[in-house]
Amino acid sequence: MVIEERKGRLPLIIMDISGSVIDLLYTNKKGLKKTIETDRLWCIFEETGRLLPYTLPGRAGEEPKLVSISEKGRWIEAVVKSSGSSGAKAAASAKRTTKEKTVPKVSTGRADESALVLKRLIEIIHRRREEMPEGSYTAYLFKEGIPKIKKKLGEEAVELLISGDRDNTIYETADLLYHLLVFLEAESIGLNEVLKELKSRMDKE
Predict the structure, then answer these.
(1) What fold is seen in the domain 111-204?
(2) Are 51 and 31 in contact (CB under 8 A)?
(3) pLDDT digits over 56-67, tens only?
(4) Which of 10, 65, 98, 191 counts the most CB atoms within 10 A of its CB?
(5) More confidently predicted of 49 and 22
(6) Which is nearest to 26 in space by CA: 7, 148, 40?
Protein backbone atom coordinates (compact mmCIF):
# COMPACT_ATOMS: atom_id res chain seq x y z
CA MET A 1 0.00 0.00 0.00
CA VAL A 2 1.49 3.35 -1.07
CA ILE A 3 -0.53 5.70 1.11
CA GLU A 4 0.73 6.06 4.68
CA GLU A 5 -1.27 6.31 7.88
CA ARG A 6 -1.07 9.67 9.62
CA LYS A 7 -1.98 9.77 13.29
CA GLY A 8 -3.04 6.14 12.83
CA ARG A 9 -5.69 7.10 10.28
CA LEU A 10 -6.20 7.08 6.52
CA PRO A 11 -8.36 9.84 4.99
CA LEU A 12 -11.41 8.29 3.32
CA ILE A 13 -13.60 10.00 0.74
CA ILE A 14 -16.92 8.22 0.15
CA MET A 15 -18.70 8.89 -3.14
CA ASP A 16 -21.84 7.63 -4.84
CA ILE A 17 -21.83 6.13 -8.33
CA SER A 18 -22.55 9.54 -9.88
CA GLY A 19 -19.31 10.92 -8.43
CA SER A 20 -20.90 13.08 -5.73
CA VAL A 21 -19.16 13.14 -2.36
CA ILE A 22 -21.28 11.57 0.39
CA ASP A 23 -18.92 11.61 3.34
CA LEU A 24 -15.42 12.46 4.52
CA LEU A 25 -14.23 10.03 7.18
CA TYR A 26 -11.20 8.04 8.28
CA THR A 27 -10.21 4.41 8.27
CA ASN A 28 -6.88 2.69 8.95
CA LYS A 29 -4.85 -0.19 7.53
CA LYS A 30 -6.89 -2.71 9.47
CA GLY A 31 -10.13 -1.15 8.27
CA LEU A 32 -8.94 -1.14 4.67
CA LYS A 33 -7.98 -4.81 4.95
CA LYS A 34 -11.39 -5.69 6.42
CA THR A 35 -13.12 -3.69 3.69
CA ILE A 36 -11.33 -5.65 0.97
CA GLU A 37 -11.92 -8.99 2.69
CA THR A 38 -15.60 -8.51 3.56
CA ASP A 39 -16.94 -6.24 0.79
CA ARG A 40 -18.18 -3.92 3.54
CA LEU A 41 -16.81 -0.43 4.09
CA TRP A 42 -15.19 -0.12 7.52
CA CYS A 43 -14.56 3.30 9.09
CA ILE A 44 -13.27 4.63 12.39
CA PHE A 45 -16.09 5.53 14.78
CA GLU A 46 -14.64 8.70 16.26
CA GLU A 47 -16.40 8.65 19.62
CA THR A 48 -14.94 5.28 20.58
CA GLY A 49 -12.05 4.89 18.15
CA ARG A 50 -13.55 1.56 17.03
CA LEU A 51 -13.78 0.28 13.49
CA LEU A 52 -17.40 -0.17 12.44
CA PRO A 53 -19.20 -0.83 9.14
CA TYR A 54 -20.17 2.40 7.39
CA THR A 55 -23.86 3.30 7.23
CA LEU A 56 -25.44 5.91 4.98
CA PRO A 57 -26.30 9.22 6.70
CA GLY A 58 -30.00 9.53 7.43
CA ARG A 59 -30.75 5.95 6.29
CA ALA A 60 -31.39 4.31 9.69
CA GLY A 61 -28.39 2.01 9.71
CA GLU A 62 -28.44 1.08 6.02
CA GLU A 63 -25.09 -0.23 4.84
CA PRO A 64 -24.37 0.71 1.22
CA LYS A 65 -22.99 -1.70 -1.35
CA LEU A 66 -19.30 -1.23 -2.03
CA VAL A 67 -18.68 -0.69 -5.74
CA SER A 68 -14.96 0.07 -5.66
CA ILE A 69 -12.17 1.20 -3.39
CA SER A 70 -8.86 2.64 -4.53
CA GLU A 71 -5.88 4.69 -3.44
CA LYS A 72 -5.76 8.25 -4.75
CA GLY A 73 -2.37 9.59 -3.75
CA ARG A 74 -2.93 10.86 -0.21
CA TRP A 75 -6.35 9.38 0.48
CA ILE A 76 -8.62 6.39 -0.05
CA GLU A 77 -11.61 6.77 -2.36
CA ALA A 78 -14.60 4.46 -1.92
CA VAL A 79 -17.52 4.36 -4.34
CA VAL A 80 -20.77 3.00 -2.91
CA LYS A 81 -24.42 2.73 -3.83
CA SER A 82 -27.53 2.37 -1.73
CA SER A 83 -28.76 -1.17 -1.16
CA GLY A 84 -32.01 -0.03 -2.71
CA SER A 85 -30.35 1.33 -5.86
CA SER A 86 -31.45 -0.15 -9.15
CA GLY A 87 -29.06 -1.72 -11.62
CA ALA A 88 -26.89 -4.79 -11.72
CA LYS A 89 -24.62 -5.65 -8.85
CA ALA A 90 -21.06 -4.47 -9.18
CA ALA A 91 -18.79 -7.33 -10.06
CA ALA A 92 -16.27 -8.36 -7.48
CA SER A 93 -13.56 -7.47 -9.92
CA ALA A 94 -14.71 -3.86 -9.82
CA LYS A 95 -13.40 -3.63 -6.27
CA ARG A 96 -9.76 -2.79 -6.46
CA THR A 97 -6.83 -1.06 -4.89
CA THR A 98 -4.46 0.81 -7.14
CA LYS A 99 -1.01 2.05 -6.36
CA GLU A 100 -0.19 5.45 -7.69
CA LYS A 101 3.02 7.40 -7.46
CA THR A 102 2.48 10.82 -5.96
CA VAL A 103 3.62 13.39 -8.51
CA PRO A 104 3.67 17.13 -7.76
CA LYS A 105 0.93 18.76 -9.80
CA VAL A 106 1.09 22.20 -11.34
CA SER A 107 -1.98 24.31 -10.72
CA THR A 108 -4.15 24.70 -13.80
CA GLY A 109 -5.71 27.86 -12.46
CA ARG A 110 -9.19 26.35 -12.55
CA ALA A 111 -10.80 28.43 -9.82
CA ASP A 112 -14.21 26.91 -10.58
CA GLU A 113 -13.00 23.42 -9.64
CA SER A 114 -11.54 24.64 -6.35
CA ALA A 115 -14.75 26.51 -5.57
CA LEU A 116 -16.76 23.36 -6.27
CA VAL A 117 -14.67 21.32 -3.83
CA LEU A 118 -15.21 23.93 -1.12
CA LYS A 119 -18.93 24.14 -1.91
CA ARG A 120 -19.36 20.36 -1.62
CA LEU A 121 -17.39 20.23 1.62
CA ILE A 122 -19.44 23.05 3.15
CA GLU A 123 -22.67 21.28 2.12
CA ILE A 124 -21.52 18.01 3.70
CA ILE A 125 -20.55 19.76 6.94
CA HIS A 126 -23.94 21.53 7.04
CA ARG A 127 -25.81 18.25 6.49
CA ARG A 128 -23.85 16.55 9.25
CA ARG A 129 -24.86 19.30 11.66
CA GLU A 130 -28.52 18.88 10.72
CA GLU A 131 -28.65 15.07 10.59
CA MET A 132 -25.98 14.15 13.20
CA PRO A 133 -25.46 10.63 11.76
CA GLU A 134 -23.84 8.06 14.02
CA GLY A 135 -20.23 7.33 13.15
CA SER A 136 -19.61 10.67 11.41
CA TYR A 137 -16.50 12.49 12.63
CA THR A 138 -18.06 15.83 11.71
CA ALA A 139 -21.21 15.02 13.70
CA TYR A 140 -18.99 13.96 16.60
CA LEU A 141 -17.34 17.39 16.62
CA PHE A 142 -20.71 19.16 16.62
CA LYS A 143 -21.90 16.90 19.44
CA GLU A 144 -18.83 17.75 21.53
CA GLY A 145 -19.42 21.45 20.96
CA ILE A 146 -17.45 24.57 20.14
CA PRO A 147 -14.76 24.12 22.86
CA LYS A 148 -13.80 20.76 21.33
CA ILE A 149 -13.84 22.20 17.80
CA LYS A 150 -11.63 25.11 18.90
CA LYS A 151 -9.23 22.68 20.54
CA LYS A 152 -8.96 20.63 17.33
CA LEU A 153 -8.55 23.80 15.29
CA GLY A 154 -5.66 24.87 17.51
CA GLU A 155 -4.04 21.44 17.30
CA GLU A 156 -4.24 21.44 13.52
CA ALA A 157 -2.76 24.95 13.35
CA VAL A 158 0.23 23.83 15.42
CA GLU A 159 0.68 20.71 13.29
CA LEU A 160 0.72 22.88 10.18
CA LEU A 161 3.41 25.11 11.67
CA ILE A 162 5.67 22.11 12.32
CA SER A 163 4.69 20.18 9.19
CA GLY A 164 8.12 20.37 7.57
CA ASP A 165 8.06 19.07 4.00
CA ARG A 166 5.71 20.01 1.18
CA ASP A 167 3.50 16.89 1.33
CA ASN A 168 2.92 17.27 5.07
CA THR A 169 2.19 20.97 4.62
CA ILE A 170 -0.53 20.16 2.05
CA TYR A 171 -1.98 17.44 4.29
CA GLU A 172 -2.03 19.59 7.43
CA THR A 173 -3.44 22.58 5.53
CA ALA A 174 -6.35 20.38 4.41
CA ASP A 175 -6.92 19.30 8.02
CA LEU A 176 -6.84 22.91 9.22
CA LEU A 177 -9.19 24.14 6.48
CA TYR A 178 -11.68 21.36 7.21
CA HIS A 179 -11.74 22.10 10.95
CA LEU A 180 -12.02 25.83 10.23
CA LEU A 181 -15.12 25.20 8.10
CA VAL A 182 -16.59 23.05 10.88
CA PHE A 183 -15.94 25.88 13.34
CA LEU A 184 -17.61 28.44 11.07
CA GLU A 185 -20.65 26.17 10.70
CA ALA A 186 -20.84 25.71 14.47
CA GLU A 187 -20.80 29.49 14.87
CA SER A 188 -23.36 29.92 12.05
CA ILE A 189 -20.90 32.01 10.05
CA GLY A 190 -20.97 31.60 6.29
CA LEU A 191 -17.73 31.42 4.33
CA ASN A 192 -19.16 34.18 2.13
CA GLU A 193 -19.07 36.50 5.17
CA VAL A 194 -15.36 35.79 5.61
CA LEU A 195 -14.71 36.31 1.90
CA LYS A 196 -16.62 39.59 2.02
CA GLU A 197 -14.31 40.76 4.81
CA LEU A 198 -11.27 39.72 2.78
CA LYS A 199 -12.60 41.60 -0.24
CA SER A 200 -13.06 44.75 1.82
CA ARG A 201 -9.41 44.50 2.87
CA MET A 202 -8.30 43.97 -0.73
CA ASP A 203 -10.18 47.09 -1.77
CA LYS A 204 -8.10 49.08 0.73
CA GLU A 205 -4.77 47.83 -0.64
Answers:
(1) Helix Hairpins (1.10.287)
(2) yes
(3) 877 667 888 999
(4) 10
(5) 22
(6) 7
